[in-house]
Specification:
The complex is a heterodimer of chains A (265) and B (133). Chain A is α/β, with parallel strands linked by helices and 265 residues long. Chain A is built from twelve helices and eight strands. In chain A, strand 5, helix 7 and strand 6 form a beta-alpha-beta unit. The longest helix of chain A has 16 residues. In chain A, 42% of the residues are buried. With 133 residues, chain B is α/β, with parallel strands linked by helices. The longest helix of chain B has 13 residues. Classes of the chains: A alpha/beta (265), B alpha/beta (133).
Chain lengths: 265, 133
């Protein structure tokens, strides 16, 4: 029988894991806050980009299976990194709503690779309304009890809305690059960023902005009071060996905002 | 020879027969088109949700069990990417399928077996490069 793309995803090393650093801005210095763990599909296939990969997985209705494979692959790769950087792992809300044992699976996977649970944040992503609110809420509760932090990804897009914020009471609100890119000269985007920050403060949560690619946008978000930043301006998603051999995981990242960039801050 | 009207335009070919995918990819690439190929319905839909195509050429029977997965692809294109043109190229002889395909607004329906030249002619017409027809 012919192998489908799903078979290729599920094959050993079918998924590649990349890590993109999230930095905390202190004045003009950046320190590593955590690593977002990103999956890429099998090489040289249509589903290599994450957006196509997960659209395919959702259309196959195989989020649970693939999210489990992703968690396993993340733990395996993260265990090869030096130090103990905090890790942020993407999981579909529908997986948490369907898989009663998903939290146990995360805990067991982390333990088998010697990764402390306190390093983990689960980033909840969703594109459709999940079916079982009770199972989902239970999963959130279990993760909290286990010591896993919760982030709500893509706040303001799709099903990642106020209702989801109430369900999750996240530790982090993540803002998609759509609202960040060009915010320096867009009063409406800045308005949205401010409102997310205000909302996060009410939840005693932090805001992470994705897609920071210019010093102007960096200056805008830091001026607003957002200090957790992620984007190509600082570091792209990197494979384990490249990240491991870089200076980014050492105590001091070596990254500083330059004097030229200071003019904006 | 590459036609400037075609260069950089992107098409998607959806078929579970790899020789057909290879043949169409080779042929249309030589004309300057960017050609993506998909064997599964969900793969095609995932691409269509993320990439803009000028034209989709789709078989009715794809990797799956129903035998009319191509209809789902046609429906997806017509709902989500109404500017994308669609050619159905199929061995199905069901008149019900044919009626349904036309009801969904497909631009051309070509019965297999048919020479590649027929598919190419229909494609170039729909892409506004009839010189190749």
């Amino acid at each position: 029988m012919r192998r489908t793309l799903l078979d290729r995803i599920l094959a050993p090393s079918g998924l590649r894991i990349l890590f993109q650093p999230i930095f905390k801005v202190y004045g003009t210095t950046l320190t590593l806050h955590s690593l977002e763990c990103l999956a890429r599909g099998p090489k040289d296939t249509n589903i290599e980009p994450a957006s196509v990969l997960f659209e395919y997985v959702r259309r196959k209705r195989e989020e649970v299976l693939v999210d489990r494979v992703c968690v396993g692959a993340v733990m395996r790769e993260a265990s090869k990194l030096p130090g103990e950087p905090p890790l942020s792992i993407n999981v579909h809300a529908s997986t948490l709503g369907r898989d009663h044992r998903f939290t146990d699976f995360i805990v067991e996977s982390a333990a088998s690779f010697g990764i402390s649970i306190s390093r983990l944040t689960v980033e909840i992503v969703e594109h459709v309304t999940f079916s079982d609110g009770f199972v989902f809420l239970n999963a959130i509760e279990e993760m909290r009890r286990a010591g896993i932090k919760i982030a709500l990804d893509d706040i303001g897009l799709g099903q990642s809305n106020y209702r989801m914020a109430l369900y999750c009471k996240p530790d982090y609100f993540k803002v998609d690059s759509y609202f960040v890119k060009g915010s320096h000269n867009d009063v409406y985007r800045r308005g949205i960023l401010e409102s997310v920050l205000h909302l996060a403060q009410k939840f005693t949560a932090n805001v992470v902005v994705e897609g920071v690619e210019t010093v102007e946008d960096l200056a805008t978000v830091t001026e607003l009071g957002i200090d957790l930043v992620q984007g190509f301006l600082f570091a792209p998603p990197m494979p384990t060996d490249e990240l491991g051999s870089s200076h980014l995981l050492s105590g001091h990242t070596g990254l500083e905002v330059s004097s030229e960039q200071l003019a904006f801050l | 020879m590459k036609d400037p009207l075609l260069t950089s335009r992107r098409i998607l070919v959806v078929d579970d027969e790899r020789p057909i995918l290879f043949a169409l990819r080779d042929y249309f690439s030589l004309k300057g088109l960017i050609v993506d190929c998909a064997e599964e319905m969900e793969e095609a839909q995932a691409l269509l949700a993320n990439v803009s195509y000028s034209l989709v050429i789709v078989d009715m029977r794809l990797t799956g069990f129903g035998g009319v997965e191509g209809l789902e692809v046609v429906g997806f294109v017509k709902d989500r990417c109404p500017q994308t043109r669609v050619i159905v190229w199929t061995a199905s002889e069901s008149s019900a399928v044919k009626r349904e395909v036309h009801r969904r607004g497909v631009d051309r329906y070509i019965q297999k077996p048919a020479p590649l030249a027929d598919v190419a002619r229909a494609a170039f017409e729909l892409l506004g490069a009839p010189a190749y027809a």
